[in-house]
Amino acid sequence: MTREQAMARHAELAEQIRAHDYAYYVLARPVISDQEYDRLYRELVDLERAFPELVTPDSPTQRVGGAPLPEFGQVRHAVPMMSLDNTYSTGEVREFVGRVQKLLPGAKLEWVVEPKVDGVAVSLRYENGVFTVGATRGDGAVGDDITANLKTIRSVPLRIPSAHAGARTTGAAPDGSGSKLQPPRVLEVRGEVYLTRRGFEKLNAERIEAGEEPFANPRNAAAGSLKQLDPRIVAKRPLEVVLYGIGQADGEGIPATQAELLSWLKELGFKTPEKHWLCRTTDELFEAIAALDKLRPELPYETDGAVAKLNSFALRERCGATAKAPRWAIAYKYPAEQAQTRLRAITVQVGRTGALTPVAELEPVFLAGSTISRATLHNEEELRRKDIRVGDIVIIEKAGEVIPAVVGVVKEKRTGAEKRFVFPRHCPECGTAVSRESIAGETGVIWRCTNRDCPARIRGRIEHWCSRGAMDIEGAGEVLVAQLVKSGLAHDVADLYRLELGQVAALERMGEKSARNFLDNVEASKQRDLWRLIFGLGILHVGAGVAKSLARHYATLDQLAAASRDELTQIEDIGPVIAESVYAWFNDPANQRLIERLRSAGLNFKSSLHRPADAKGPFAGKTFVLTGTLPGMTREQATAKIESLGGRVSSSVSSKTDYVLAGSDPGSKLDKAKSLGVRVIDEAEFLRLAGEAKL
Asked: Residue 621 — left, alpha, or beta (φ > 0 → left; ψ -120 to 50 → alpha)?
């Protein structure tokens, strides 16, 4: 390669990496896999090694990556937050150990191996034991001030309990031992904010219900959550934090090794990695990496690698760091489980909001425990950037081990018969010209069908209305809804309440009995509570939780429909974006006509959750958690009763939980309640508190 060629390739790589850094760190929406990014970065590093004159201060190799968002205040880190060099090669891990040994001739090396948590790096600053500032890594020197958002995470201590640990001073200890424990004057604790696997699945289900795009993986979801400007939204996200390092630390008794630090942080009340390994030889280091790989499926969060750190802090100081990363640590990334298969076709799905999403139709292939035949392609730009063509042999993996994704094309296997996919400029369902919209706060654009009468949008709205979480109309599956729409029997959800037995029975595979059952369920849905109706309307950004908040605040649908934007923003859990969406929906003439037709059909417009501001039920202000199987009622019935009496139901136990209602086979929630001293009640005690002797 000539110098001119190297300069051109260097400029191209640097531009690509900067774009991906921006998508990942700033917009929290990565557009390529970690392995693709690492390949580009490694090529740039190798190029600069071969042509050192190409290294410039603004090269991606000279910075950690990322930039603070202008909407947030900025925090300058007292000690830079550096990223880690990473590798997929065990041979490079051995080379790393060799380099450290050369830097420390004669020193006996010990290593600590920890899980590489797939989250967002943060720093928490405590002054005299009180949490004062929380920040993202940003560019390593300056990060975003996300203190308000971090305070919503329950595993982040707002104060370090002085009785836990810290610098020892004279005086009487709580245990009478003669010494009292005080936290350091200044302590910066560093780690990762993440979503649990279960929390990620729940969050995506809620986003889909609310008509929003699901997150691609838990890391993206965590990053997107911390970028929210409204802490109330963050508080509803199931975020957790794990801490494993320190920045600035002023005080006595600061640990001298990583192993001691992890124990010390745990004593201070911080959440630390569930498992770590202290390794005294290189063989033990690789044994630990292998052991962690086997343990990964049992961890509550996604982890894509192992971090090996020099145990001694004094030896770390002697090793030093490059401009980007410390020389005393490395991240070994486990190879993602991938498979190759042929892309048979690309179809375009139209959702109830009109969004067009390309989907890869694949030759079925077994991957990570399941057979994959379809995978999302996200948007038009994804297709163009990866040059994905129909007929290609593609590489797929489960993004975050959850969502099947096409991560690349095996171009050397192309035969010439492959065809570029032309993204439609008209809706594949109704033929309406589609509009191009930017995705707020994210990279890329989305094409949307603007025809509200598009059959695909109608089907989506009706399926959502009938879903269990909304109006709970059993029997209204995808096949039946498609027939109702195709036959012209249903143009919107109000038409369901005008259907006649003969019309439904005449549909394919129905018959009179099935039709009767379906219509009985439609009739029963007229009595559903108001929050279900609000949710069932499919208002953008309004999931079940938001619908309940609205139904608690307003006694009737008419009161909600008359609310102003400002009034809506005063409601708990309702921010400006949701308020605007709700206001716009109820002020749309077509939606107003739909409401009147539902009224004429006899649907319930009153809320059982609403209580006047001065009214107090037996459960007013109380938070319940349900666990196990109750003998006389379902969880849905118990939840409805709690909410109707002024209480709220949470999915997790915390110190703010008032009661845990436990049935048979209660699980870990019962253990946590006991450890926190939360009152545990059975169904009989629950009914007594509710003022009932029995159901």
From this structure: left
* 595 vs 36: which has the higher pLDDT: 595
Is the pTM value of this prediction over 0.85?
A: no
Determine the residue type at 416: G
* Catalytically annotated residue among 102, 108, 116, 486: 116
**Residue-by-residue DSSP string for 253-321:** ---SBHHHHHHHHHHTT----S--EEESSHHHHHHHHHHHHHHGGGSSB-EEEEEEEESBHHHHHHH-B
Q: CA distances (Å), 356 to each of 135, 454, 511, 609, 647, in order?
A: 36, 12, 35, 36, 40
The H or E element that residue 383 is part of is helix 380-386
b/e 244-257 (16+ beta carbons within 10 angstroms → b): bbbbebeeeebeeb
To which residue do tokens 């963050």 refer? 234
Q: Which residues are 222's β-sheet partners?
A: none
Q: Which CATH architecture has domain 623-689?
A: 3-Layer(aba) Sandwich (3.40)
| Torsion, Cα of 478, 479, 480, 481 (10° steps) | 40
- Of residues 599, 663, 592, the one with CA closest to residue 625: 663
CB 541 within 8 A of CB 211: yes
Domain 74-333, what fold?
Answer: D-amino Acid Aminotransferase; Chain A, domain 1 (3.30.470)
The per-residue pLDDT for range 72-126, each reduced to its tens digit, is 888 999 999 998 999 989 999 999 999 999 999 999 999 999 999 989 999 999 9
Respond yes or no: is residue 116 known to be catalytic: yes
CA angle 209, 213, 215 (to 5 degrees): 105
Stretch (H or E) spanning 532: helix 530-536
Contact 548, 531 (CB under 8 A): yes
CATH (residue range 338-441):
2.40.50.140
Name the CATH code of domain 455-600 (choices 3.30.2090.10, 2.60.120.260, 3.40.50.720, 1.10.150.20).
Answer: 1.10.150.20
**Which class is 3-62 in CATH?**
mainly alpha
Domain boundaries, the chain: 3-62, 74-333, 338-441, 455-600, 623-689
350 touches 356 (CB < 8 A): yes
Q: How far apart are CA 686 and CA 588, in angstroms?
A: 44
Task: Check residue 308 and give its pLDDT.
Answer: 97
Name the β-bridge partners of 189: 124, 246
